[in-house]
Amino acid sequence: MARRYFEARKGRIEIIPMIDVMFFLLVFFIMITLQMIPDQGLALQLPRSSRSRRLPHPHFTIDIEKSGSVSVKGRTYDMTRLEYLLRSDGDPAKTRLTIAADRNVPFQDFIHVMDTCRKAGVSDIGIAAKPAG
């Protein structure tokens, strides 16, 4: 009986680690892709401020046009529908939003939007402005 010291073993491909790697790649790809999608908005003449600074990326950007109409991501909302949209975003207390109003918008229209956001429970509200200069 002859002994073989080096038996030829057939190579195996382990599939479980390959699946794990593919899931990690998929998750990273989705996260990067979601951050690359631009928000839709309007071209507004924002007021200028010498104290403006960069805000964290908001969940919503609320645009107020000269005519007083309010839009979010290209869709026009009245105050009731805007409040419903903000309430339906999960936890409104953790929702970040930015209000971008044209410089010719009456201040009362801006206050109506702020009141609606506060009534919906949103407390992290930023105001869009262009840097002076």
Describe the structure.
It is a single chain. By secondary structure, the protein is an alpha/beta fold. It has a domain at 48-131: Nucleotidyltransferase, domain 5 (2-Layer Sandwich). The protein is 34% helix and 19% strand. The chain is built from three helices and seven strands, in the order αββββαβαββ. The chain has helices spanning 15-36, 79-87, 107-120, and strands at 48-49, 60-64, 70-72, 75-77, 96-101, 124-127, 130-131. A five-stranded mixed beta sheet has the order 4-3-2-5-6. The protein has a two-stranded parallel ribbon with strand order 1-7. A hairpin with a 2-residue loop joins β3 and β4. α2 runs parallel beside α3. The longest helix has 22 residues, at 15-36. The model has no long low-confidence stretch (mean pLDDT 80).
List keywords for this structure.
133 residues, alpha/beta, Nucleotidyltransferase, domain 5, five-stranded mixed β-sheet, two-stranded parallel ribbon, 3 helices, elongated
CATH class of the domain at 48-131: Alpha Beta
CATH structural fold name of the domain at 48-131: Nucleotidyltransferase, domain 5
Q: Low-confidence stretches at least 5 residues in length (pLDDT < 50)?
A: none
Question: How many angstroms separate the termini?
Answer: 92 Å
Count the strands?
7
Shape: elongated
- The number of helical runs is 3
